[in-house]
Specification:
heterodimer, A: alpha/beta, 13 helices, B: about 425 residues
């Protein structure tokens, strides 16, 4: 709101608009806190903490050792400083690495046994943990055809998974969908085979940290030839103060299978920043396809830049088999700082990677996000569509790599990066890396930066549409290509988020 | 940040191979300050992000790698153009081969001659734009040049000049290691064209600082060609006043290692800066265009057009950045980098960047890489054009967009014919 408080409100904006905007500006819908008795591991990070997390999850020895090795590697690593983000130094010893509701001490056997307070929390977030036909809480979802719109949810609350819905029905189809801690206990052969094979233990500073301390997350295995009968989703909620969330997601799509996966996340409104460092690994075998959609809505901090989540995430998909296909779609509206590059390794011949992203940064938010398309196989294809929107005093950076290896003959890439600036105090940046090492491949990269078009704005205003609403409308149009790539539940939520995130940006 | 030990020792090894200049006055303090900059930054190594795609080793090592001499009886580029010739052989001014240095509308001196003078306008330019150009990205090889350059031309343009000033560089020793530093000051309303050609030395480090006053124009056409084993690192630093114009074009044909950096600061409103390049490489060829354009005034236009044709394992690099500062409203920034890979072994590495802090701007960049368009080739062949000629035609058409950036038709024609010659020699 600081922009509006200054005298330089643009001419032609009536006071009513300014007041209305001031009233709703910076409002974050999910900023409330659940009061629940928690149990914490001692503050700080040591081998004892790593062992403690491992024992809380009742892990076998191999897993404990895997974590300890990661911890040793982490000690030798330096925090990356190349991203265009600026934040106070993080004291990694001044954090809780494990926090779980006391009521989760003994794992509930079914959703009926889960603490009502937790169930209430998810209900309030619009993600009720009961096996209903449609994902409620999303406006407009009730109009959707009920048939085939089931969504199974794995709900992660601080460091633990509180429950996973539709497990029995999924099991009938052969699909394994559970928390990763459960998978380590119940399906060690699968976890052992795939964990850390896409994002190696020592991949980068945050991924290494995650490897040492991840407390929970989701696990998905889709057997050969199976089309997952419903959409799967994970909902991450940070609730406890001074606690970092480190979750790990492992998705395996075996030959010829298909799954669409949704991820959502929110956190309470607090003055102090909190750390979130996740790793998502996806393995896609021959002819399989995975769609991974994220609506990232972590608390972004207040309009003065106080508080908010530091979101340092490593996401990578490995198209191992021929004709494997992956599609990342992300709507990044939250977090004080975002550092996130969902990537595709196109190893199989004719494999395909797609990345659709809308990143919105308002007030003091900083986003440095993009993708990597590593073409290794022949006839591989990739497409990148990135829309960055900056408002307030935010900084928004697209950073990406397209790499065509010598053996990736006849491959194609198309990249489109557009940035939109709303206001004269924000920044929009594009940092693409393009590496072409064979001549039968074709790479095309386009980027533009502009402001909200005056003519479009005039057109909307003339028809009686308020300034804020007009900006949201134009931005939605600007981001259309990405919004269309989202599954329906998310698309509607994303459209609303685009409007909310930009509140207070006009002036 | 402290310089890493390995970098520090490499830097000291290089410094030990150079001879410090005698004498006092303003240039000594300029050189001393530059030396301190070099020590503070350390010379580049392969771990530097700014040198991600080009290995700086041979440009940094104490001894210049040996480079075989290139002999030809063919006429040299610009031979047919009426111009004032200034010749340097292996970095040493060659008075006999040069023309008389007097020409109406400008004043030409040698850096070696003015270094001893107490009062000279060059004091306010020597190393000044280079120092500005060290942020936000360090360019230690340019600071090294400011500290140790042996000679160069110092040109003060005061009015309209009747013909281009042509800097010709000869390479006559297999082990020469040359460093030249040129200064060009274009007064308000004045206009000049500078030509450069020739391989200069086995290893060449050149800096040109160009101050362009309000309403002035600076045109630059450069040809780096044919002498294959040479290595070069060049920097142009320029600052533009209100309504001034900077236009630079570079043709690079062959060369084992060439990195051309261009650092442009648009500080006056309504200024225009165009920088373009056509590079053709065959085999053991590494060519790097690194451009950094800062928009720091209202309503300025910048344009970058770079085309590369690569074959037999040649490597082309493009790093281009447009930085638009918060108050540089109404900026029009355009950038295109394209490569044509004529066979499977060549590669193109690009990092086209935008960093924008003003909202009322129109900036775009595009980058493409691929082989010759098979359909276009088929079209020509179906009309009886032999494959090699059809390929040449399409390659020239591809390069033409960059050549068109040269305003002077005679110079553009000269460059085109050089490109044709190269294609004919390297065909098949």
């Amino acid at each position: 709101m600081d922009i509006l408080d200054k005298p330089e409100v643009k001419e032609g904006v009536d006071q009513e608009t300014v007041d209305a905007v001031r009233e709703v500006g910076g409002k974050y819908k999910y900023g409330w806190e659940t009061e629940i008795e928690m149990e914490y591991a001692p503050k700080g990070l040591t081998t004892d903490i790593v062992r403690l997390i491992s024992s809380k999850n009742e892990e076998p020895e191999w897993m404990t050792n895997w974590r300890l090795e990661a911890y040793d590697r982490w000690l030798t690593k330096e925090e990356p400083d190349w991203a265009m983000v600026d934040y106070p130094e993080i004291d990694f010893q001044d954090q809780y690495y494990y926090a779980r509701p006391k009521s989760m001490e003994t794992k509930p056997k079914s959703l009926d046994e889960v603490d009502p307070k937790l169930l209430e929390t998810y209900k309030k977030l619009g993600i009720p943990l009961k096996e209903q036909m449609i994902l409620a809480g999303v406006e407009g979802a009730e109009d959707a055809p009920a048939e085939g719109r089931k969504v199974a949810v794995d709900a992660v609350f601080d460091s633990v998974s509180v429950g996973t819905t539709f497990q029995a029905e999924l099991k009938k189809a052969g699909v394994i969908f559970c928390s990763i801690s459960e998978a380590i206990r119940e399906h060690p052969e699968l976890v052992k085979k795939y964990l850390g094979t896409v994002v190696p233990v020592s991949d980068n500073f945050y991924a290494t940290l995650n490897s040492a301390v991840f407390s929970d997350g989701s696990f998905v295995y889709i057997p050969p030839g199976v089309r997952c009968p419903m959409e799967l989703s994970t909902y991450f909620r940070i609730n406890a103060e001074n606690t970092g969330q480190f979750e790990r997601t492992l998705i395996i799509a075996d030959k010829g299978s298909y799954v669409s996966y949704l991820e959502g996340c929110t956190a309470p409104q607090r003055d102090t920043s909190q750390l979130h460092a996740a790793v998502v690994e996806i393995i896609i075998e021959e002819d399989a396809e995975v769609k991974y959609s994220t609506v990232q809505n972590w608390y972004p901090g207040d309009e003065n830049g106080k508080g908010g989540i530091y979101n340092f995430v490593t996401k990578r998909a490995d198209c191992r088999g021929d004709r494997a296909k992956v599609m990342w779609t992300q709507v990044e509206t939250g977090s004080a700082v975002t550092w996130k590059y969902p990537s595709c390794i196109l190893r199989g011949n004719e494999s395909q990677g797609e990345f659709y992203s809308i990143a919105i940064a308002n007030h003091h938010q900083q986003a440095d996000t993009g993708t990597k398309m590593i073409h290794l196989g022949k006839n591989t294809k990739s497409r990148i569509v990135s829309k960055g929107i900056s408002a307030g005093v935010a900084q928004n950076t697209y950073r990406g790599l397209v790499s065509m290896h010598p053996k990736a003959k006849n491959s194609r890439n198309y990249t489109q990066c557009d940035s939109l600036l709303i206001g004269d105090k924000c920044g929009a940046h594009t940092v693409p890396y393009i590496e072409v090492k064979n001549n039968s491949s074709r790479v095309e990269h386009e980027a533009t930066t502009s402001k909200v078009d005056d003519e479009q704005m005039f057109y909307c205003r003339q028809r009686g549409i308020g300034e804020e609403e007009a900006v949201a409308l134009i931005v939605n149009g600007f981001a259309k290509e990405v919004l269309q790539a989202l599954p329906m539940e998310f698309a509607m939520e994303a459209q609303q988020l685009v409007a909310i995130s930009l509140e207070g940006s006009v002036g | 940040m402290a310089v890493a030990q390995t970098k520090q020792s490499a830097t000291e090894a290089r410094l030990a191979s150079l001879v410090a200049h005698e004498g006092g006055g303003w240039i000594s303090s300029g050189r001393q300050a530059a030396l301190e900059r070099v020590r503070m930054m350390g010379l580049p190594d392969r771990r530097d992000e700014y040198w991600k795609y080009t290995r700086p080793d041979t440009l940094v090592q104490a001894e210049a790698p040996k480079a075989a001499l290139f002999e030809t009886t063919d006429p040299r580029v610009f031979d047919g153009i009426d111009r004032l010739k200034i010749v340097f052989t292996d970095g040493v001014f060659d008075a006999d081969a040069s023309d008389d240095l007097s020409l109406e509308g400008l004043n030409i001196e040698r850096l070696a001659d003015i270094a001893g003078k107490d009062i000279h306008w060059a004091k306010d330019l020597y190393g000044v734009l280079e120092t500005n150009g060290q942020t936000p990205v360090e360019r230690p090889l340019a600071a090294l040049n400011t500290a140790f350059a042996t000679d160069g031309v110092v040109i003060h343009v005061t009015g309209q000049v009747s013909k281009p000033v042509s800097l010709i560089y000869n390479h006559r020793s297999e082990v020469s290691d040359a460093m030249l530093h040129h200064l060009v000051k274009v007064d308000a309303g004045a206009k000049v064209t500078i030509l450069e050609n020739g391989p200069a030395a086995a290893r060449f480090n050149k800096v040109m600082e160009v101050e362009i006053a309000d309403g002035a124009e600076f045109h630059h056409v450069r040809a780096q060609g044919r002498d294959h084993e040479r290595r070069a690192i060049t920097h142009i630093f320029t600052r533009l006043g209100v309504e001034s114009v900077f236009k630079s074009f570079t043709l690079t044909a062959n060369g084992m290692m060439t990195r051309n950096e261009c650092v442009i600061e648009l500080t006056g409103d309504d200024a225009v800066a165009h920088v373009a390049g056509a590079a053709v490489g065959d085999g053991d060829f590494h060519h790097d265009d690194t451009v950094f354009i800062t928009h720091d005034a209202v309503n300025c236009e910048s344009r970058q057009v770079f085309k590369k044709v690569l074959r037999n394992g040649a490597t082309g690099v493009f790093q281009g950045k447009i930085l638009v500062k918060p108050d540089a409203q109404k900026t029009d920034g355009y950038q295109i980098s394209q490569s044509l890979l004529l066979d499977e072994d060549s590669q193109f590495l690009a990092k086209p960047e935008l960093e924008i802090y003003a909202d009322d701007v129109a900036c775009s960049h595009g980058s493409t890489s691929g082989a010759i368009d098979e359909e276009a080739l088929f079209y020509l062949r179906a009309r009886g054009v032999p494959k090699n000629i059809a390929t040449d035609l399409l390659t020239l058409a591809f390069l033409a967009e960059a050549v068109l950036e040269i305003e002077d038709e005679a110079l553009a024609e000269e460059i085109s014919s050089r490109l044709e010659g190269w294609l004919v020699r390297h065909n098949g």
